[in-house]
Amino acid sequence: MTDVDDWEARLAHELDDIRASTQQLRAAVAAIRGRADKHGVTVEVDARGDITDLRISPAAMRTSHTQLSTAITDTYRAARADASAKVNRALRSADPRLRAAAEQLKTARSQPNTAPSRPMTEDEIQAADDAFFERRNRDGWTNR
């Protein structure tokens, strides 16, 4: 075997290891759920922060609309924070090569978007709404 053959074999083995680690991390992150209970409201979110379950107790329904809105918003934020902490724990235990890539992605995402934002048009809102409901109808309303 030549040096090039050895190098190719080591590289192929390393790529296989990275692929396996990526699949394990992907599965671990897909299983993550953040959860919070506050003021009669329970919210569960996935690793991206999308709501997978929302429960409102009868007692919470008897509060004012502003109290209920605040309870839902606060609980949602707490559930997202819980999911984010779990994702960070999963990343800390992941392959170091994946952690480095994840840090690069996180840094890129944290850069401010210099493009000016504009309000969505009614057609864009409708399209986003349709996409959400299509995804929920396809994947289910509770991803348990």
TrEMBL record:
<feature type="compositionally biased region" description="Polar residues">
    <location>
        <begin position="107"/>
        <end position="116"/>
    </location>
</feature>
<dbReference type="GO" id="GO:0003677">
    <property type="term" value="F:DNA binding"/>
</dbReference>
<feature type="compositionally biased region" description="Basic and acidic residues">
    <location>
        <begin position="132"/>
        <end position="144"/>
    </location>
</feature>
<dbReference type="InterPro" id="IPR036894">
    <property type="entry name" value="YbaB-like_sf"/>
</dbReference>
<dbReference type="InterPro" id="IPR004401">
    <property type="entry name" value="YbaB/EbfC"/>
</dbReference>
<dbReference type="Pfam" id="PF02575">
    <property type="entry name" value="YbaB_DNA_bd"/>
</dbReference>
<keyword id="KW-0238">DNA-binding</keyword>
<feature type="region of interest" description="Disordered">
    <location>
        <begin position="102"/>
        <end position="144"/>
    </location>
</feature>
<protein>
    <submittedName>
        <fullName>YbaB/EbfC DNA-binding family protein</fullName>
    </submittedName>
</protein>
